Amino acid sequence: MTDEKRRPKWFLGYRPGVPRPTRGDLQRDLEEYRQMALDMGAEDARIIPASDVEIGMHIRASACYFPRCPIFGTNLHCQPRWNAPWADIKKIVASFEYAIVFRTTRRPDHMSGPVHLTLEQTRLYARYLDKPVEQVLTERGYPVRPIPTREEGLQPFRGVQSVGGTRIVAAIERQARRDGHYFSQAMGSGGSCPITVCREYGAACVGLKTGICRFPGRSRPTGTGCWGLDYIATAGKQGWKMPLAGFSVHAEDYPEGAACYSPAVVLIE
Amino acid sequence: MSVGKKRDLPVPRVGPPAIDEVPRFKPVWVPAPPEELEKNFQKYVDIAQDMGASDVMVVSPKDIPLDIRAAYMCHFPHCRWLNSNDNCPMVRTFPFDEAQEIVRHYAYALAYRMPPPADDEVPDVGSINLDMYYTMAKGAAPDPKLMARNVFRQRIVAETARRIEQAAYYDGCYLKMSAGVGPCLVTWCAAEGRCVAMKEGFCKFCGITQPVGSSALYIDYYGLARMLGWGEMQPGGNCAFPEDTPEGFDYFNIGLTFLF
Questions:
Q1: Residue A254 forms contact with B (CB below 8 Å)
Q2: Do B25 and A129 touch (CB under 8 A)?
Q3: From the list B17, B103, B206, which residue is nearest A69 (CB)?
Q4: Do A67 and B165 touch (CB under 8 A)?
Q5: Among A228, B73, B103, B131, which residue has the fewest nearby CB atoms (within 10 Å)?
Q6: How far apart are CA B15 and CA B18, in angstroms?
Q7: pLDDT tops 50 at residue B1
Q8: What digits encode the pLDDT tens for the residues A165-221?
């Protein structure tokens, strides 16, 4: 009798490489997730090969560091807190086969222009200037108005009601994991989690102090800053063009009916 | 030694500009094809020349010399600004291979040679207490006029980079990126005197400041100047007087803005 046969069953008695039992068809699941995105308010959703998802270290650098992003370092899901090595990120994204890409629509006046974009930053600047935020705004000629709430930001536009890209990617990721696609990864969309999730809480991240996220089920690491995802190029491959939003692009200069898009990506194995 | 024009730059102010001062750009549709973006190069060259650049050149980022030793110029000897702000080493560094990947991805880089401004008087650099920074050990203090000019010189390059980046972004080049020249505590927050981001995480000049090119991106500016035919660059410093510059060397900065 050999030594191996004398061993009890509990000693190395397993069979490596057991295939994972598949629960359903991947293509059918992907179609279900695509439909799920549309049902939750996405304007367009597609199934694409994961190789079509454009990533690059330079995107991470230009979005967060060069120049420094206003949200940088203010929450758990942005740089430099969520800073996986770039070699790992490349391997993770390359290991996926498919991705669901969709876009949600936003009103231009909620995405672009000096009045909108200064509101949140001005509150922080006012702290440094040691003045009330209303005084800072008035001194510099800005209209004083409250920050639009989440409900105002998500009001129907062009007949589409959206719950926001981050909620949709989180829901799809959750469903995919339930369906047996355990390693599915959602990339945060539509801004960083202080804006998309914790806006009602003063965009303050309790996770930085306590280490525990307020909404771990809803918030996701930002696609651009953490995954190095080029949303605009990935959307461009699907033929989706969008007007560029920014501090100096006034919402009233947008062409009639034009909207700001927020593309979003979920990687499905 | 070549000298640039006299420029009048106001001391940077915290917070959003007055609403009347915000420039207004028309929205462009992205992603834009590279041939569309290439048409705008002359605009960026004009901005750099308007700010006093003596020479501007479009280079391929693949030709920019990167050297791992460039980052250690900040460490040995210990730079006065090392660890003093959130954009300088040792706080902000990238691994060398990641920095190479960042730089090599871009299609073009705009390099501009910025000589020191032809100012005889002390430029207005705000309420910065220069003595506080340079004479902590009660040693011999350098000329405060020279230090103020050094602060102003780096601020000119930073402002040029900001203007080129602004124009490039609103032209549709949304991945534009400038390598920082000089510590941001000097270029933008000199009047504030300290880096708030180190403690609170939120930068007072976010959207404008960036890590230093030599330490974060390992750019060998001396090799770059030689490659572009701009002569030998004299290492600057708070005790490096322009009149002591050896023959064959020149006193200037190089700004770099990566495009596409």
A1: yes
A2: no
A3: B206
A4: yes
A5: B131
A6: 9
A7: no
A8: 888 899 999 999 888 888 999 988 877 888 778 877 777 889 888 989 998 888 888
Peptide bond between residue B31 and the one before it cis (omega within 30 degrees of 0) = yes
pLDDT at position B70 is 92
Long-range contacts at A87-95 (CB < 8 A, ≥ 24 apart): A89/A55, A89/A226, A89/A227, A89/A228, A90/A55, A92/A185, A93/A50, A93/A53, A93/A55, A93/A227, A93/A267, A94/A50, A95/A183, A95/A269
pLDDT in tens, B148-160: 787 888 889 999 9
Rg for chain A, CA atoms, rounded = 22
Cβ(A186)–Cβ(A170) below 8 Å: yes
Residue to substitute from A52, A54, A55, A58, interface B, most B β-carbons within 10 A? A58
Chain A hits for B14, Cβ within 8 Å:
125, 128-129
pTM of the model: 0.89
Q: Using the beta-carbon criterion (under 8 Å), do B14 and A69 form an inter-chain contact?
A: no
Helix (H, G, I), strand (E, B) or coil at A142: coil
Residue of B nearest to A67 (CA): B210
Fill in the amino acid letter for A256.
E
